[in-house]
Amino acid sequence: MIAVIDYGAGNLFSVHNALKFLGFENRVTADPGVLRAADKLILPGVGAFPDAMNRLRQAGLDQAIRSEALSGKPLLGICLGMQLLFEKGYEFEETEGLSLIDGYVDKILAPALKIPHMGWDEVEIVNPSPLTADINSGDRVYFVHSYKAVTAVSNINLATQYGQLVPALVSRDNVHGAQFHPEKSGGVGLKILNAFGEL
User: Fold this and answer.
1) Distance from the CA of 1 to the CA of which of 19, 52, 73, 112 falls in 20 to 30 A?
2) What is the CATH number for 34?
3) Across 142-163, average pLDDT
């Protein structure tokens, strides 16, 4: 069973419905006990980094997520949920993240381009991972974000170009993060969710 983590800041039911379409049992939950019982975790998210971390802490979900991920349980962060996997974020103020992947999250600096980065964009494979097995460079996915991860190239599986290299899919061991929305990215996004579900 895949637990889709509900902390009041997620695009929960699109993710739930995509997993259901793919045939994966999943449950939207805010219960740390359900997280412990689940086989895999998905951390969705839309909104601001500090508010999201505050919500996770207030619900006692930050420690539950860290504990389960550090035990080896597969975890996928989506959009803001991907950003929360890093050590720190600089949206409005410096805020500690979940520290599951080395690096930080900062504003996209692309003065000639519209921010937020919104819409369909091509990705390129940087370092293959289990989630990119059925993905090709040139495939297009759907983004909505103003901030990006800054991390070692070794942690980047897919990237896009938006005035600079922007990590699109990252991983460290069993922890994965998609800056784009796989649940809104058509067949390409479903391939990534399916690969995660089959880990």
Assistant:
1) 52
2) 3.40.50.880
3) 97
